[in-house]
Amino acid sequence: MKIEKNSRYLIASEHDLQWGLTVCSIGFQDITPNEKYPPQDHPKPYLFSPSRGRMLDEYQLIYITRGQGKFCSVNQRSTVVKEGTMFLLFPGEWHTYYPLEKTGWSEYFIGCKGYTMDQRLEKGFLLKSKPTFQVGMDEELVRLYHKAMDVAHEQRPGFQQVLSGIANMLIGLAYSKDKGMNFLDKQVQQQIDKARIIMLEHVSKRITPEMIADQLGMSYSCFRKTFKEYTGFAPIQYMQELKLQYAKELLWTTQHTIKEIAFMLNFDNAEYFSVFFKKKQHQTPLEYRNFSRGIGGTSPANGEVKPTST
Questions:
Q1: Whole-number mean pLDDT of the chain?
Q2: How many CB atoms lie within 10 A of CB 247?
Q3: Shared domain check, 194 and 175
């Protein structure tokens, strides 16, 4: 499920604003080395020149998961930000940030506004003098950004309230994890969390545990042992569970054929995908699709047969 760029810019009704927090923007950008920054496909209010900076009318929480760069604001002197760093932009405050040309970076962002955020600033939970959060490589944070992008894409009734909850969770976790970093050395855990993120973002790509261990600078034997101690899964088992989860999502929410899904997940053929799926789920892909949509079939949990819909 590797994504390179995915941005949404949202509107909120007067009624939504009374909720206390609304989300204005959400997205992900994978900036390659020497790529121009920022990309020019954003709305004009969000475009800026790194040398001149800009001001926004919203809070924006940015999470760097690869590479490094620079960040500077009125209240924060120029500082290096790298993978595992979040930084918060404040409305009406000049700032600038950009990846280093030699590394590029991967960047998640979510922008929001509302009186609940203003109160956190007023009460000292958020500080303009300390806009950075050292959260490390954290799978939970990445999953929340992905969930927010999904919600923003679908825009079902009440989506602003759902996004508000996700934004609150991200900010709360940033605050908590930054405080926890002051007390614990989590180097090994950070490596495992980074491995999980790599697996999640490459679930539809050909990548092996050995390749991930190499990216982490660990021997494979050490990586496998450490990963299993922390997760309860061998790396290859964890990757298979992620692939199964993504396959179930595609079967449930899309009209792709079984063959197309097998191709999307990098299986050699549809037959091998079906064998893999049935071994894990105790249903064929088609049986799972029909059951999940209430068309009929047998539940793998209790063996009950659902009546066929008419």
A1: 89
A2: 25
A3: no
In terms of domains, do 134 and 245 share one? no
**Is residue 158 located within the same domain as residue 196?**
no
pTM over cut 0.70: no
In sequence order, the 6+-apart residues with CB closer than 8 A to the CB of 9 are 24, 25, 42, 43, 46
Residues 6+ apart with CB under 8 A from 287: 297, 298
pLDDT of residue 271: 93
Among the three residues 133, 148, 180, which one is the final residue of a domain in this structure? 180
131 and 269 in a common domain: no
Tell me: do 267 and 286 sit in the same domain. yes
Q: Which of 63, 233, 239 is nearest to 137 (CA)?
A: 63
Cα dihedral sign, 72-125-193-202: negative
Quick one: 174 and 265 in the same domain? Answer: no
Q: pLDDT tens-digit profile of 91-132?
A: 999 999 999 999 999 999 999 999 999 999 999 999 999 999
Q: In degrees rounded to 5, what are phi and psi of residue 136?
A: 75, -175
> Each residue of 51-61: pLDDT tens digit?
999 999 999 99
Domain containing 150 equals: 5-180
Please tell me whether residue 101 adopts helix, strand or coil conformation.
coil
CATH number of the domain where residue 301 is located: 1.10.10.60
Is 151 found in the same domain as 32? Answer: yes
Burial 76-94 (b: 16+ CB within 10 A, else e): beeeebbbbbbbbbbbeee
Contacts 24+ apart (CB under 8 A), 226-229: 226/188, 226/191, 226/192, 227/192, 227/195
Judged by average pLDDT, the poorest of 102-116, 126-140, 178-192 is 178-192
